[in-house]
Inverse folding.
């Protein structure tokens, strides 16, 4: 062998070892995640390490960044987040593997550091306990063991590894392949078992949902007048089908609550008779059925986070009265109703608003079926006229009466406003932005909302010209959006269409542009189209 070829071949072997070391790190990470998955099935789905880290990131994301993510990725924001965490994890794991080739204890320490990160993340989430650290801790130990095992095969095993210069030591290829294969197989088995176990927990919740028989309402929703539903292609339907209903929450795994073991606690300041209800007791109470439009405070002008459903639920005010609650306007001590979900969300609603006669409900039904899991099964709150983050707690399990002074709920701690009534808004659904249209009559249509005040008027203007009144669909009730249509005699050229609503108090929507933080976006929605 010549000098050159032997140097080249030594370099190749070295490269192969580094690559295998990186692979060892990745296999160790895989083992850690799989064991974490298995343990999280025993603890709770949210404690799975990647989910816990993702959740902790969500909790710490500034509102502007969160809104950017929601805007950019829509409902896929959660997948993007989890995917990014996985990619980072794989990269770091590869580095840890390479380090471990030179210094096994340092590599193992690296893996354990990840375990600590996962455990701290799990512990930092609302409603978590020490048990939640188990999946990350157990996963890290498994990962460290796998890394130790695999890097041993790369450097010549056992004690010899520390005595023989690393690159000279026998590379135990066969041993490495066997150990790596066995690690991957055992890890995958653990991960698979974890998934199966997790799924069986979900299966019970799903069965409990399938068994729900929704009662007939004591008070039905008013029939929606046909005239409330103009037939215009491209216009949002008056009632949003459940599968199209917007979804906004912090849950990286949708909680699957078993209705059979669900309980609601009502307690706190000024509660003379604390209540505890199970799902059957709740279903036996008088129900009302109402069309209500829900809006997210993160909805940009013209955005998609507004939807309308026919809800079935228990009126909240009488329930609170039964518990002895009086609103502050009648001398009660608590001005804030804090709702808590099974995943630790806290949402604060003014007690006066809940008890002012509007249809605030504990909803169990949505468009004729039990709440979908994504939308809060078995029970969520709905309060007409308030943004979701101050009213619409999903997967509800506790109502606590307290004061705004004493407690800041989740979003308020993240710079959103304490109180947030829905702002008057309107949206052009059709034509779409940058549509190419034919000259002649074009039907411009959309929705407008000012829940609990009602919409009086919608106007459209072209290229900053005079406002022209649109035809409003019949009003279903004050708590829903209203569809509108305007026939535009479109002429050739590029045009800007703008819409503006006026609520039933006579106040027109402001044209002043404001972002979503801290209490909802303002400004006029506009669409640019070209007409040939
Ligand atoms: N448990 C829980 N409830 C929640 C949230 C959440 O993150 N967790 N998000 C709130 C927000 S910000 C909104 S806008 C509504 C959205 O309800 P939807 O997803 O059914 O449309 O739920 C509210 N209830
Ligand atoms: Mo929201």
């Amino acid at each position: 062998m010549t000098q050159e070829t032997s140097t080249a071949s030594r370099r190749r072997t070295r490269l192969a070892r580094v690559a295998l070391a990186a692979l060892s790190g990745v296999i160790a990470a895989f083992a850690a995640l799989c064991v974490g998955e298995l343990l999280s099935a025993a603890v709770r789905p949210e404690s799975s390490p990647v989910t816990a880290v993702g959740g902790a990131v969500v909790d710490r994301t500034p509102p502007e960044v969160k809104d950017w993510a929601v805007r950019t990725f829509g409902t896929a924001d959660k997948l993007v987040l989890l995917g990014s965490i996985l990619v980072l994890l794989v990269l770091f794991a590869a580095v840890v593997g390479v380090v471990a080739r030179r210094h096994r204890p340092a590599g193992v320490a690296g893996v354990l550091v990840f375990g600590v990160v996962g455990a701290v993340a799990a512990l930092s989430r609302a409603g978590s306990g020490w048990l939640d650290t188990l999946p990350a801790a157990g996963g890290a130990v498994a990962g460290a063991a796998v890394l130790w095992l695999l890097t041993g095969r790369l450097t010549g095993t056992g004690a010899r590894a520390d005595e023989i210069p690393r690159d000279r030591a026998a590379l135990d290829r066969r041993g490495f392949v066997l150990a790596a294969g066995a690690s991957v197989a055992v890890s995958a088995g653990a991960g698979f078992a974890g998934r199966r176990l997790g799924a069986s927990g979900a299966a019970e919740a799903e069965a409990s949902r399938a068994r729900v028989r929704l009662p007939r309402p004591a008070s039905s929703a008013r029939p929606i007048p046909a005239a409330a539903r103009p037939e215009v292609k491209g216009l949002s339907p008056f009632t949003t089908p459940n599968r199209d209903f917007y979804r906004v929450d912090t849950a990286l795994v949708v909680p699957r609550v078993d209705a059979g073991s669900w309980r609601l606690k009502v307690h706190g300041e000024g509660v003379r008779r604390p209540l505890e209800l199970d799902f059957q007791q709740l279903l036996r109470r008088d129900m009302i059925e109402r069309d209500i439009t829900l809006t997210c405070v993160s909805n940009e002008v013209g955005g998609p986070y507004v939807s309308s459903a026919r809800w079935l639920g228990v009126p909240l005010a009488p329930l609170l009265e039964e518990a002895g609650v009086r609103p502050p306007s009648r001398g009660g001590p608590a001005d804030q109703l804090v709702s808590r979900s099974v995943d630790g969300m806290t949402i604060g609603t003014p007690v006066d608003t809940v008890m002012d006669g509007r249809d605030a409900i504990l909803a169990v039904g949505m468009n004729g079926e039990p709440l979908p899991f994504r939308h809060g099964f078995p029970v969520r709150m709905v309060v007409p006229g308030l943004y979701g983050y101050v009213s619409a707690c999903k997967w509800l399990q506790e109502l606590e009466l307290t004061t705004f002074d004493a407690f800041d709920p989740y979003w308020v701690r993240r710079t959103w406003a304490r109180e947030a009534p829905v702002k008057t808004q309107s949206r052009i659904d059709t034509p779409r932005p940058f549509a190419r249209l034919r000259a002649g009559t074009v039907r411009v249509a959309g929705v407008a909302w000012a829940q609990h005040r009602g919409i009086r008027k919608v106007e459209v203007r072209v290229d900053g010209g005079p406002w022209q009144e649109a035809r409003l669909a019949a009003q279903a009730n004050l708590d829903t959006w209203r569809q509108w249509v305007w026939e535009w005699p479109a002429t050739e050229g590029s045009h800007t269409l703008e819409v503006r609503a006026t609520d039933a108090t006579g106040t027109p929507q402001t044209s002043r542009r404001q972002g979503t933080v801290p209490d909802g976006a303002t400004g006029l929605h506009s669409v640019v189209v070209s007409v040939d």
